# Entry
Amino acid sequence: MFQSKYTHHYTLTAGECDPEGCMSLAELAERLIEVATEHANSLGIGYDALITKNIGWVLSRLAIEMKRYPGINVEYTITSWIEGYNRFFSERNFAVSDAAGNTLGYARTVWVAMDYKSRTMADLSSFETSRFPIADLPCPIAKTPRLASPGNDAQTDEYTFRYRDLDVNRHVNTVRYIDLILNHWPLEFFDRMMPVRLDVLFHNECHFGERVALRVAEGSPGENICEIIRPDGKKAVACRICWKKTQKNVNLH
# Structure
């Protein structure tokens, strides 16, 4: 019998903290991917099973909404479950909670099965439906909407992807895109603002040596709209970040 939900317990170490002593969005995204990978492996739909058919999971959409983040040496739990799937993609949700069971936030993801040879969507019909057990669990945050592009007044940063930006699929890792976006703002900004909602849509792959443009603009009050543009002019990533003011006890050395 396959487990419809999967839980992993963590303790946030000092090396995993941001400069404010809390878990960063990029670190959280990495842990979500880790838990999704572990659950998929336990269901027999992970890397080892799919690679025999030259198929792999690629993250297509990511939404994270947090009330607060774990701090240094704090225990936290991530629980993941499949909300739905079809022959081409799977919708997977997450809940993040503290050691007392209080909910810190939720996340929604959409994973596309990609054919490594054609670099197009693969067909998952040959896998048993029992390997995609649907869990009837609530995930109260909204799905990622269609995101607008920044206007002509957007600020632009440029970056060239390097070796450590790549993953096993030899394209840029999800977490590196998030890092690139967050690095747009100075340290002092994060001392007074906290990201409470992140939406990311992945449109096209980026690769080693590509010099991309990060465009950032203000959207509605308290939010920024971002996009990463490849050298060929195609949009690689669309993103929206919503912020709230916060009072952090920053440990300055």
The CA atoms of residues 37 and 46 lie 6 Å apart. The chain has a mean pLDDT of 94.
